[in-house]
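Batch job 17 of 40 flagged for manual review because the log was empty.
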Amino acid sequence: MIRYIFSGVLMILASPLVNAWPLVFVALAPALTGFWQDSGAFADPVQPRRFWRVLLGGYLVGLCYATSHFYWLVEFKPLWLLPVLAGFALMPAMLGLAVWGAVGAGLRGFWLLLWTALSWTAIEVLGSDLWLGLPSYALGYYLWQVPLLLQTADVAGVFGISFGIMVVNVLAAQCWQARGAGRASWWLLTVCLSALVLGYGIWRQAAVVSASEEVPGVPVRALHTAVTIEEKHDEAATRRMFDNFNRVTRDAADTSGAAALTVWPETSLPLWLRSTEYRDIMQALSQAAADTGTPVLVGAYSMTLTASGSPQLLNAAFLVPVSGYIAEEYHKVLLVPGAEHNPLERWLPQRLREWWPSRMAPGDSSGPLDAGALQLGVFICWEAFFPGHVRALTRAGAELLVNMSNDEAAFGPLQRAYSIPMPHLVLRAIENRRFVVRSANVGSSLFIAPTGKVVVASEPATTGMVQALVTPLQEQTFFTAHGFQLARAAFMLWLLWGVCLVWRLARRPVVRQ
């Protein structure tokens, strides 16, 4: 089991939690050699295949993999931690089972290596928002600090990056197992594939930078704040917060002039903004936008009616124009399970729904908000984890992707966890070739270029304003136009191949000891 333990440790070190990202290219290699060995790929024919060793070894790797991603649930939803870890730990275990079955069906050599790499990609696709409605959970996010290696995401998305990482792991494992001249040929193949990825990255980065320089940039600002949950539950504190945010917004305009947009964080105003009770705040917002000559995008609550006619909150973003009525809103479509809504609501009887009610209602899918100089693709907090949702906003005409977040509500005092959305935001920028601006409470407010480079970021738990020039691009990448079609094709190929292997396995004679 030493190989599996070693892989588990490497997965933790390579993850965004520790950020030793180069290790991701070899982190799974020890486990892969263990899968192949225990499945009988290199064993004497009379040696029994170790099914339970493959299953438990893969699950051990999976527990380490999942823990490095979901440790923050200790603060957010501690009762969810164990079932979430248990569920996501199945991914490497499923990989082990796929290898075990393929070896039993007689797969060897190059085709076993290809099957191993393709199996991991298929398992990621199966466990993502593509099929099960869960946030993307992929190896590709481990490389978020190295945008040069992520440029193929504008074609295949994050799963394409994962496939490349897994191919290198598979080849590294094969180099470990191979001997003599065979090892040199596998190393050569690894170098050639890596050179192809690097070459595309260099070419694509240069092309995107060139396209950005041809279009005049416009200034955009993002507010960063440091507000606790307790303050948001106090109306007097909320009004003081508004006065402070309003002052920071005006000060930025006094210093730097008008901008194309100023973004405030998610629920920066934790109130039903259109209520007559808060008419003075509405008027002050409109006045601030008019005085600064800058539209303001504000996070607050909207309201809708349920089927029974009772009111229910919507997590919303309000676009306050320079002049006129606040007419445009975005309502959060993908709500956080357990925190914002009951994911089992539609299947539970009425009595249980009353015991566990949803705090909010989901919004309808919508297009960009028109800020004049920019078409805004707004997505709130958790929605950053869903590439398909952000892609739909871009495809509908968004020129700037805007993420509003309240990190303190999700991660509490776990400051390390505030970087969790970063890999996803970097990939969303590259996949769609759009600038991303993020305005956050307690976490960092920042700007990300279409190449994946973080242009500027604020310090966490501070109040102020960050600003950058953004370019309103209109390019539709292959990913924006077609989404995860390549990933779906890879999954279907794997599925058909798997059916063939199962048929072969069923026809193989049983060897009696």
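Reviewer: the log was empty due to a logging misconfiguration, but the result itself is present. The longest strand covers residues 296-305. Unflagging and moving on to job 18.
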